[in-house]
Amino acid sequence: MTTETLTNLVSEMAAGSLRVVDLTVPLSAATPVIGLPEEFSPSPAFKLEQISHYDDRGPAWYWNSFSCGEHTGTHFDAPGHWITGQDYADGYTDTIPPGKLVAAANVIDVSTESAENPDFLLTSDRIREWEAVHGRIAAGTWVLMRTDWSKRTAEDFLNYAEDGPHTPGPSVECMEFLAHDRDILGFGVETVGTDAGQAFTFDPAFPAHQLMHSNNKFGLASLTNLDQLPPTGAVIITPPLKIVTGSGSPLRVLALTSV
Q1: Annotated active-site positions, please?
Q2: pTM score, whole prediction
Q3: Which of 23, 27, 85, 212 could form a disulfide with 217 if both were Cys (CB 3.0 to 4.6 A apart)?
Q4: Are 189 and 221 in contact (CB under 8 A)?
Q5: Is 258 exposed, middle or buried (0-12, 13-18, 19+ CB in 10 A)?
């Protein structure tokens, strides 16, 4: 890339020829957090506490402290988040090469199927159908699964039932295909986690975590506004907080796309 390319990029953004789309949900105490069985430690909800607000605690400034689990709201999954990715030296939020945090995105629209079936699973056959129209998915790019799940109310977002959550996600063979045959950078979803709600019953369980992270690849969860992106041509910017040995973090995902 030349200086002229960067200058043209900034100029096109200033002229309105490029759009910046925010793919991030707001963080608040109401942000849904993934649930775990009682025997496991739960992830805490987002909490904001005021330090001062132009008052006796700080007359000229306003600020807060906050706390939450690393995987709260729109968040980044680093390889070290899962046992299969724990040995990658560059697999934590402070060691991921920054060049991997800006990449092209492929958006696969399965919103109709997901509306009809909350347990819909993305397969390699469905991806090949998409590729027949939009071209082969390039190595080192993101695959984002558009389900429009982010448009659900907070009450329906986690979609729990007696047998666990029911949300769409990828099949086992889909994750094997994307990790090995397409060598993607990472996999992103609009649901609370990168796996389907019933993925604990799969073999192996939780394939988006098991297979993505074992191959030093990333995840993005709780995305929104994927309906504003084209199938190809967008670039997403995904830097997590640089937490030392962090397994992930909330982040603000931005997409650059044409008008």
Answers
A1: 81
A2: 0.96
A3: 212
A4: yes
A5: exposed
